[in-house]
Amino acid sequence: ALGVRFAILREDRQAARQRLDRYRAEWPGSERMALLEAQIALLEQSPERAVDVLIQRTGLHDEAFRRAATDEPEALWQLADALQASARVPEAIELLERLLGAQSAGLGVDHPRVLVTRLRLADLHRANGDNALALEELDTLALPVAAAFGPRSSISGLLKATQARVLASMRRHVEASEAFLDAEAIYAASFGPGHRNTIKVGFNAAQLLVWAPESRARGLEEFRRIDTLARESLGADDPLLEFIGVEHAAALRLAGRRESARQLLLSLPQASSRGDTASSLWAKGVRELLSEPDGCSSPGAGRSDGGTAGRLNAAICSDEGSV
């Protein structure tokens, strides 16, 4: 099971599926099977399949729900994630509100599992456009979460990262970038500075800073730091490494540093080394754009792929584009 989880964390779909097949053969009756199957379904962008697997696993009738709410809420949390990924956010909110009621009655309002459910519910309110409600709930949760899990715990980091996403949705980009950097510091203390979650939130902060002209120079410094950290910490075949490098190059182009962007892209692993993943296709497209004499494709070039080249052209070629 640990091997499957590791592959999921690395977002390696093929390895996760292969390891799950081996785990199923060795432990056919494992209670963790449905959770792992659902996580892989989400990784494979099949959220409806994840929903089906988890509903079969948990059962939503009253007695089974109450038992799962107090003893094994992970399946219900993951079901809410799958519903959200299926664009069924109101259903996910309804599920977690029901879960919160059952947990509060069975465990008490200050139980750590109740706090995690409230944190996840706040993020769903953000996804549903209720940013003010989400931010208010996150502010209320800050002290109880720190007391229950510790101020440098992964749950405290998740709360800060969720708060950053809410602020970004409200277009409060400077505050959001600072919250992402706070989350990075907490994750670094909890997981380590080279962990994928740590790198991801630092990357999010860099993106927000680059968007605004007044903070672009700082954003480029953050991109350089995160890019270097990713190269030192992630495997050469990790899609996240390539994606960060590509976005870093787009940020450099946005700042008018076209040659630096070109050199950075040339230093990335070749797209063909892992096959046609979304990340390597993105990188391949950027390389093609930067191979043009002026670093840009001609107007309307490459629009037949459903938008990738158009987004690249906007990011690389337009001084008014966003990263």
Written description of the protein model:
It contains 17 helices and no strands. By secondary structure, it is mainly alpha-helical. Helix 1 (2-9) packs antiparallel against helix 2 (13-26), helix 3 packs antiparallel against helix 4 and helix 4 (47-58) packs antiparallel against helix 6. The longest helix has 19 residues, at 89-107. The two termini are 37 Å apart. 40% of the residues are buried. The model is unreliable at 271-278 and 293-323 (pLDDT under 50).
Question: How does the SSE layout of this entry go?
Answer:
Blueprint: H1 2-9, H2 13-26, H3 33-43, H4 47-58, H5 62-71, H6 74-85, H7 89-107, H8 112-127, H9 131-149, H10 154-169, H11 173-190, H12 196-211, H13 216-233, H14 239-254, H15 258-266, H16 278-290, H17 308-317
Spell the H/E element sequence: HHHHHHHHHHHHHHHHH
Low-confidence stretches: 271-278, 293-323
Largest sheet: none
Shape: globular
Sheet/helix structural class: mainly alpha
Rounded mean pLDDT is 80
Helix content: over 70%
Number of strands: 0
Ends distance: 37 Å
Rg (C-alpha, Å): 21 Å
Number of helices: 17
Classify the beta-strand content into a percent band. under 5%
